Amino acid sequence: MIKVLTVNYETPDLILRLVESFRQYHDNEIIIIDGSNPENYEKTKSNLDRFENIQIHHFNYNLHHGPSMAYGIRTMDCDKIMVIDSDVIIYKEFLSKLETYLDPELYGVGDIQEVDANGFNVGGRGGAIGLMESEQQTGIKYLHPAFMLINKEVALQWPMPVKHGAPMIETMKAIHKAGKSNILKHVDWVFNDFRNENKIYFRHDWMGTVSRVGGYNLD
């Protein structure tokens, strides 16, 4: 069973846009981890009332992206989790296609990037933190959490996402150090839709939430 995990912080319009587009093609349960202020939380609830099979887990403070994902991974009742950023728009049915790549032994599938220990790009395809470059060429494989499908039981065996501009960095460093990067699988069409103009399955508005509520937290 696949459930969807997304994080919302002060952007009820973005989460509505995601849900509206996703519901055109899929009826999977959506779990929203929300750290918005009371006004924006109420707007989110009101906007989503007409949709079925949605749970909102609200915190009265900003839990941050990584810890919110960690909470979802630990608490969701399913075997596979589709993690999607709130500033994504779905263009086409994709889950059945993406699931074919997710073998039982894998951590997850999606766009695999090359980053350094701080989460900055070293592979020339755009990094986990924006499009910045780094001189430290460590080449850690980084599964980008904006659009990734993971096996929950495998994910629970590794460090959880953290408060960081690249929230999967501790997970990916641990996998890299253990020599287990083969449990991450790159999917070309996910990379295409992240980076190229001719998008097929989804669009991701890079830093959609960050541009509204402030910068990355790197500590």
Task: Walk me through the structure.
By secondary structure, the protein is of the alpha/beta class. The chain has one domain: Spore Coat Polysaccharide Biosynthesis Protein SpsA, Chain A (Alpha-Beta Complex). The protein is built from 8 helices and 11 strands. The chain has a 7-stranded mixed beta sheet with strand order 3-2-1-4-9-6-10. It has a two-stranded antiparallel ribbon with strand order 5-11. Strands 7-8 form a two-stranded antiparallel sheet. Strand 1, helix 1 and strand 2 form a beta-alpha-beta unit. Helix 1 (12-23) packs parallel to helix 2. The longest helix has 12 residues, at 12-23. It starts with a strand and ends in a 6-residue tail after the last helix. 39% of the residues are buried.
Q: How is this fold's topology laid out?
A:
Layout: E1 2-8, H1 12-23, E2 30-34, H2 38-48, E3 54-58, H3 65-75, E4 80-84, E5 88-90, H4 95-99, E6 108-110, E7 112-115, E8 140-143, E9 147-151, H5 152-155, H6 169-177, E10 184-186, H7 188-195, E11 202-204, H8 210-213
Parallel strand pairs: 1-2, 1-4, 2-3, 6-10
Antiparallel strand pairs: 4-9, 5-11, 6-9, 7-8
Helix pairs in contact: 1-2
